[in-house]
Amino acid sequence: MAFERSLGGAVLAVLLLLPSSVTGQMRDDILRPVSPAGALTAAARCDTGIVIAADTLEATYYLPPSAPPDSLGYPAMLFVPGFGESKNGDTLSASLWAGSGYVSLCYSVRGQGKSGGRSTIMGGAERRDLDSVLQFLKRLSGVNPGRVGIQGGSQGGLHALWAVEESLVVAATADVITPSWASDMVSNGSFRTMLVTLLQMPGVRYDPVRDTLWHFLRDEEHGDFRSVFVPGRDVALLARSRVPLALFAKWQDHYFSVGDALEWYASASGERKLYLGTGGHYSDSIPSELSYQWSTVNRWHQEFTQGRTSGILSEPRLAVAVSSLPVQGSGTFTWTRSELETWPPEGVEPYRLFLLPDSLLMPVTVSGRADSSLLVNACPVGYTVDSAFAAGFQDLKIPEKTLRFTSRVLQGDAVLCGSARFHVAVRSPSAVFPLHARLLEVDSSGLAHLVTRINFIARDWAAGSSGTVEAAGPAHAHRFSRGSRIRIELTNLDIGTRPGWGSRPFVLPLFRHGEVAIYADSLHGSYVEFPFLGNPVLGTTVASFDARFDASAREVVVSWSTLVEADNSEFRVMKRGGGAEVQIATVLPQGGPVSTAPLTYTFVDTAVEEGEWTYRLIQVDRFGLWQTGGEKSVTVALNGIAREVPHATELEQNFPNPFNPVTTIRFAISGDVEGGVVRLALYDLLGREVAVLVNEPKAAGRHQLLFDARGVASGVYLCRLTAGTFTETRKLVLIR
After folding, report:
1. In this structure, what are the phi and psi dihedrals at residue 193, rounded to the nearest 5 degrees?
2. How would DSSP label each residue in 89-124?
């Protein structure tokens, strides 16, 4: 994987991708920068220790082989490793940046590697150390203290945010981190599973605060944990700083969600660059995206740390990579990147999908029965956080219970641009219960792909009461494609599906018994709301509807057209006059249940009478849900219009046939039998009369009726028309 970008007269042309740690360390697949191989032998290395009070932090720095760029000295770069790592992961990068003209320093954070001190878990002690380390770097011989930058990912990215907030550097780049990372890891009453990694990282020597936090986590004391963990760890005043910062946040990050990065970008005072996409902390590893990010890191520091024009300021400050199908062989989405200035883009609108009976997910509520389903978190007696931790949180002993709701086929693309949120009506006999939502895209072959999630655990519910649970999930950008479906899974366990993640949950399970009844019906209005760019057009879209009286033919022509049809079962033509509305026709979809091409339909009503008539179209989907497709009033005036008299009496074949349960029957009465009794009856194959549809005098002309076979058993029937001496029989097939 290579890219080319000028930096200090050299060409950067290599990317080094570190392997995922088998111990679950935070580095995951964070990129490390390297310069041309020729620089490896050029930089002078010095291993040292930085003494801070009673502790010594191990460090290595490199001196450039060339002369300083000016009389003020060399630019300098500080590399900070991820949590649980040592400086050794950054020595290659530091040496290569030295070969490009920087004095480069890397060190092991306290309690990690061979550094002294105790880790406060990315807390206050590490932040105080950073100031001392930067002072050490700025005092190195030949360093221009006004040209010092910092870069890092995860824990290292947090150090970069601290340096920006306190204006300790001239420029910074930070990867897989967000300002309010600590609050994010305990949001919505949940414990992010990766907190366990922070508290139990092999090789890290911890401050006693770790034991306090671990005690709270083991006992599921969420409020106490939050009160100790969050204060002093979030970077609250980052937006006030004017230090140039390029921040790289990842939609699928299993540590820190990106929403807080968006807030920083919108309110930041200084020069800024924000990348929202993928690469790191178990997100998709896409070579082109990783190349773009490191190119941005190089150019950012060229512009602000070296003080040399890179052209980056003439580009949009925001880059967004959007995931979509198809999924690649490695299990990753397809990613498409765009550059823009604002987020979300113009045109994003909230789009609600309601949870309905029969596992339906619909953009509108429909009248129907009340419906609820019980979600039970049946934690076995004696099964605890310790039990799950011993097994690496794999193969949990708590049974997973899932309620699935699936939309109709999407007839247009829709891009998720931000955080989905749910509004779910519930009733719970428990004081605590979990309610997680997985949001998936189901492709045309029926395979479901996890897009994002919403996590929530009720910690102090009034047992026995009803209410509404509202929660938002991590922000994401994903294109739901035409032809797919959207699925919502409500579950007690949010088991991960990321490559390399295994069967661990995204947030820790609730290690207690808890249950909750989920109301999924039109009475309670539970829904999930998506910020969508574009309309997914769920279902059938009727584009036009018309009804007109053709005086010359003595008939009403009903016509309509559709743009797209999804899960379409039938159209019903309704006719109303004198206060009563009857169905006069059933028309089946021309393109089958799903059609993406515009279609046109026509139905001719020949059974017309004088007066005002209203025609209405009803579209019915395969779930039995219906919508009105249009309505039109027609005046029928027959006075003075010659009536068409059929030359012969006849019974036409019913339509549709086979049918379920409604079909249209048409017949013609000629002048020679006009005024006589017309009888239309239905018989089974044994000759037994099942129903009499007509038994009265009929005027000469064409007639039609709708036969509703509800209450009639499936089978083959004979429909017989008798008028005077005329008799004709047609075969009808009723299929349930």
Report:
1. -55, -30
2. GTHHHHHHHHHTT-EEEEEPPTTSTT--S-B-SSSH
Measured CA to CA in angstroms, residue 693 lies from 82, 406, 572, 648, 721 at distances of 81, 41, 20, 21, 10
pLDDT in tens, 272-286: 999 999 999 999 999
Q: What is the pTM of this model?
A: 0.76
pLDDT for 428-468, tens place per residue? 999 999 999 999 999 999 999 999 999 999 999 999 999 99
Contact 420, 531 (CB under 8 A): yes
On the question of pLDDT at 513 being above 70, the answer is: yes
Give residue 368's pLDDT band: very low, low, confident or very high (50, 70, 90): low
Residue 350: CB atoms within 10 Å: 11
- Beta-strand pair 726-734/14-17: unpaired
Q: Counting beta carbons within 10 angstroms of the beta carbon of residue 401, is it exposed (0 to 12), middle (13 to 18) or buried (19 or more)? A: middle
Number of structural domains the chain divides into: 4
Contact in structure between 30 and 1 (CB atoms under 8 Å): no
The length of the chain, given as a count of residues: 736
Task: Identify whether residues 176 and 38 lie together within a single domain.
Answer: yes
d(CA 478, CA 317): 20
Task: Check if the beta carbon of residue 542 is closer than 8 Å to that of residue 533.
Answer: no
**Rounded Cα–Cα distance for residues 424 and 518 (Å):** 7
475 and 543 within one domain: no
Distances in Å between the Cα of 301 and the Cα atoms of 53, 174, 243, 264 are 32, 12, 12, 20
Token digits of residue 326: 């198809």
Residue 369: give the domain boundaries.
Answer: 349-533
The answer on 266 and 120 residing in a single domain is: yes
247 and 133: one domain?
yes
Query: Across residues 303-320, what is the average pLDDT?
Result: 96
530-575 tens-digit pLDDT:
999 988 877 787 889 999 998 878 889 999 998 778 778 899 999 9
514 and 560 housed in the same domain: no
Question: Which of 630, 628, 633 minimizes the C-alpha distance to 613?
Answer: 633
| Cβ atoms 630, 545 nearer than 8 A | yes
Cα–Cα distance measured from residue 590 to residue 528, given in angstroms and rounded to the nearest whole number: 33
Rounded to whole angstroms, how far apart are CA atoms 474 and 351?
Answer: 17
Contact in structure between 126 and 159 (CB atoms under 8 Å): yes
CA distance 163 to 172: 8
Kindly report the average pLDDT of the chain as a whole number.
Answer: 89
Q: Are 317 and 492 in contact (CB under 8 A)?
A: no
